[in-house]
TrEMBL record:
SUPFAM superfamilies: P-loop containing nucleoside triphosphate hydrolases. Pfam families: ABC_tran. It comes from the Bacteria. This is ABC transporter ATP-binding protein. It comes from Actinoallomurus spadix. Keywords: ATP-binding, Nucleotide-binding. GO terms for molecular function: ATP binding. The keyword NADP does not apply. Residues 2-225 form the ABC transporter domain. PANTHER family: ABC TRANSPORTER G FAMILY MEMBER 20 ISOFORM X1, ATP-BINDING CASSETTE, SUB-FAMILY H, MEMBER 1. InterPro entries: AAA+_ATPase (IPR003593), ABC_transporter-like_ATP-bd (IPR003439), ABC_transporter-like_CS (IPR017871), P-loop_NTPase (IPR027417).
Length: 238
């Protein structure tokens, strides 16, 4: 689904991504984890094709990232709410469905999927932070994209809602959707099939949660990541 080779990106004169190489298989939930500022959002922007890159290649579904043929095949939810404050939740979704060429009925489907059905007639301006991020997620789900790139979709949500959203992610993956999901919450890492651990613009681990725990002998993923950082090694696929 995604093939990245030696990707380098500079932002504001600083090198932010320092030669990343990895692949994301189709139909999987891949977690992108790392401390604030390590480059997760920049990498997601490169995958979606809205980031100017210095060198390297990003290929999505066999085409260069940003290719217009990919536009309807990728859903992207940024950390910032992507809805209009003066429209209701449903009006927003209907508007974006029309822009994307998605069926009109898709608006209600995606609102139910993210658990916002009860707030559909509320103005977006009156939503809580967690509801707003779910509204953005709903926009990303319109048109049933093959790849979902979700930047910290569960920030500000209580554990029950977070659990429900992760169930939805796995349900989507079960139907063949590929998900690249960033987080800096370690308990979410365990819910991913594969993990990409980033630090300072590099991928320092690329493996399954179980393999990362085995390799480091750590009881949990948080400890596994700390061990990898201490060893200063790169584990997983090259
Ligand atoms: N528009 C910009 N101009 C200059 N530098 C930027 C810009 N956007 C991000 N950066 C820098 O690029 C680096 C990586 O930022 P990025 O947003 O990709 O990190 P992140 O891992 O997603 O962080 P967070 O988890 O806090 O969202 C940071 O050092 C940040 O300060």
């Amino acid at each position: 689904m995604i093939v990245v080779r030696d990707l380098r990106v500079a932002r504001g004169g600083r090198t932010v991504l320092r030669g990343l190489t990895f692949e994301v298989p189709r139909g999987s939930v891949v977690g992108l984890l790392g401390p604030s500022g390590c480059g997760k959002t920049t990498l997601m922007r490169a995958v979606v094709g809205v980031q100017i890159v210095q060198s390297g290649t990003v290929t999505v579904l066999g085409r260069p990232a940003g290719h217009r043929a990919l536009r309807h095949r990728i859903g992207y939810a940024t950390q910032r709410p992507a809805v209009y404050a003066d429209l209701t939740v449903r009006e927003n979704l209907r508007y974006f469905a029309a822009v994307l060429g998605a069926p009109r009925g898709d608006a209600d489907r995606v609102l139910d999927e993210v658990g916002l059905g009860g707030a559909r007639d509320q103005l977006a301006a009156s939503l809580s932070g967690g509801q707003l991020s779910r509204a953005s997620l709903a926009v990303a789900l319109l048109g049933r994209p093959e790849l979902l790139v979700l930047d910290e979709p569960t920030v500000g949500l209580d554990p029950v809602l977070r659990g429900e959203l992760w169930e939805l992610f796995h349900e989507l993956a079960g139907r063949g959707t590929t998900l690249l999901v960033s987080s800096h919450v370690m308990d979410e890492a365990a819910r991913c099939e594969r993990l990409l651990l980033m630090r300072e613009g590099r991928i320092i681990a690329d493996d399954t949660p179980a393999a990362l725990r085995d390799r480091t002998g750590a009881g949990d993923l948080e400890q596994a990541f700390l061990t990898i950082i201490e060893r200063g090694e790169k584990v997983g696929r090259p």
